[in-house]
Write a structure and sequence with these properties.
Structural class: alpha+beta
Distance between the termini: 21 Å
Number of strands: 2
Largest sheet: 2 strands, antiparallel
Helix content: 40-55%
Radius of gyration: 14 Å
Strand content: 5-15%
Shape: flat
């Protein structure tokens, strides 16, 4: 695995105000993206979207994200 950093400033405007994020790693960027998707689309739609994305990287079978799985 390669190691790299991200230099990004993300500003999100909500009806209640705004949020700002500065992810430095791919993991932090993913957490921000998932949080924004859940807020916008809900947890089930986000889960479905993530499953679709991960299917592209599965060798032969679809990857299922089980609630409560770790």
């Amino acid at each position: 695995m390669s190691s790299h950093t991200i230099d990004a400033d993300i500003k999100v405007k909500w009806a209640e105000g705004q949020s700002a994020y500065s992810p430095g790693t791919p993991e932090e960027l993913l957490l921000i993206a998932v949080d924004l998707l859940v807020r916008d689309r809900g947890s089930e739609a986000t889960r479905s979207f993530i499953e679709q994305v991960l299917e592209r990287y599965a060798p032969h079978a679809a990857i299922a994200i089980e609630p409560g799985a770790r």
